[in-house]
Amino acid sequence: MVDVWLPYGKTEVCARIPTRNFLGTIKPKEKPRTEDPIAEIKRALSQPIGTKRLSEIAKEGDKVAIVVDDVTRPAPSHLMVPPILEELNMAGVKDEDVTVIFGCGTHRAVTDEEAKRLLGEEVISRVRVVNHDCKSSECVYIGTTKTHGNKIYINKIFAEADVKILTGDIGLHYYAGYGGGRKSVLPGVSSFETIQKNHAMLLHKNSRMGNLEGNPVHEDMMEAAKLAKVDFILNVVLNSRGEIVKAFAGDLEQAFYEGVKLVDEMYKVPVERRADIVIVSCGGYPFDVNLFQAYKAIDGALNVLKRKGVVVWVAECSEGHGNDVFYEWMKKYSSVREAERAIKRNFKLGGHKAYYLMKALERSKIILVSTMPDYYAVNVFRLKTASSVNEAVEEAFRIAGKDAKVWAIPYGNITLPILKKETF
Questions:
Q1: DSSP string, 68-125
Q2: Same fold, 2-28+268-423 and 37-238
Q3: Cα(132)–Cα(139) distance, integer angstroms
Q4: CA-closest candidate to residue 167, choices 249, 90, 71
Q5: Burial of 236 (0-12, 13-18, 19+ CB in 10 A)
Q6: Annotated catalytic residue: which of 107, 132, 321, 352?
Q7: Which of 132, 148, 173, 218 is catalytic?
Q8: Residue 376 neighbours by CB under 8 Å, 6+ apart
Q9: Active site annotation includes 218
Q10: Which fold would CATH assign to domain 2-28+268-423?
Q11: Crossing angle for the helix pair 351-363 and 296-303, nearest 10 degrees?
């Protein structure tokens, strides 16, 4: 027997798999953290990719807007913003002319306490800090994307700033391809209608994790950021422990694409074959705090699962399903086709997760190991359930057969397995 430990909430569970059935564990190719994250950020700012230094772009009297991630993202804004302010001060920009905007997209506003934790008290005391509200009448029109015809409305403060800066982290994203870069504008500081139009394009076959080529969601986001006239970005790539591996600064596109290369190197994992069973955890808390967040692990598992195979999904879900629209769509629509029609007719954020889960259930059996009551897991979300990971593994073998081959993915939230023959 092989013992495989999988993150589950704030602890771990152990799956026991017969040696003859086990193909192996698929993990990211971890890179160590940079020894001095502040020095690494300053290095990136002093050696920008494809553009001048911030201290050469900005000048005294300029109004500057800096977009930072909200509480749903792991970007270490408290490390990133002070060196940016240092660069701006070098150019003669005064702190009172700088506004930091939480790019909340459609998420709730950041609280005062969260703002202090995300930015640090020094930043809070030095510059103006605001939340973006996607439903605010203050959003202003800056143009329409040529490729996809999306009318771009963005935060007024950002639109009217003389110098526009984006910060964030670059990582895999399940329909934008990657997070980071242009995503700080759309959805970060865009209007609700602009975000809806963009996200409805997730139905396209190229709107998938780890892909930018022909991805309409990404293309629309990038064009929106160009319409916004972004001057400079500072993004970081993190390892699975949330530590900075490397920082990338400079041009909106060039710095972002350099970061994407490192993400691919770390998190795209080539594998030789598909399995009959994939046991996947999304990395424990906070990634499995609810079913809505935990879904991110499923797409990677499907990449290396045979059609009609079995997924054992390890996700504590201490806060239940996590999204009312997700729940409502799973109850309302009985098929992928119905969900597709709903997305085209009146897309609602949250409904996309129902669409993805229905698609996953069309091609696989999914056994959930969680604390979620069966009433929801089985009756609403159409999953099989098990009270322990090993009970789920036994059930998976009953479905797939005693000779079934098994992959294990402990960090499904950040791991993208790629079949060698299809990609390399």
A1: EE-TTS---HHHHHHHHHHHHHHTT--GGGEEEEEE-TTSPPPPHHHHHHHH-HHHHH
A2: no
A3: 9
A4: 249
A5: buried
A6: 107
A7: 173
A8: 320, 321, 327
A9: no
A10: 2-enoyl-CoA Hydratase; Chain A, domain 1 (3.90.226)
A11: 30
Q: Is 107 a catalytic residue?
A: yes
Residue 71, pLDDT > 90, answer: no
Considering the entire predicted model, what is its pTM? 0.89
Beta bridge partners of 171: 179
Is the domain spanning 37-238 CATH 3.40.50.11440? The answer is yes
User: Across residues 298-321, what is the average pLDDT?
Assistant: 96
DSSP symbol at 211: -
Q: Is the peptide bond before 286 cis (omega within 30 degrees of 0)?
A: yes
Arithmetic mean of pLDDT, 102-120: 94
Q: Whose CA is closest to 80, among 100, 53, 61, 60?
A: 100
Which segments within 256-405 are labelled E, that is strand?
268-271, 275-281, 305-314, 364-369, 384-386
Burial-class residue 115 by CB neighbours within 10 Å (0-12, 13-18, 19+): buried
Structure tokens at 231: 């001057």
Mark 356-366 as b/e (b = at least 16 C-beta within 10 Å): bbbbbbeebbb
Give first-to-last CA distance, the chain, whole Å. Answer: 32
Amino acid at 251: D
Residue-wise pLDDT for 163-199, tens only, equals 999 999 999 998 999 999 999 999 999 999 999 899 9
Edge-first strand order for the sheet with 128-131 is 128-131, 98-103, 64-69, 163-169, 232-238, 244-250
- Listed by start position, the domains of the chain span 2-28+268-423, 37-238
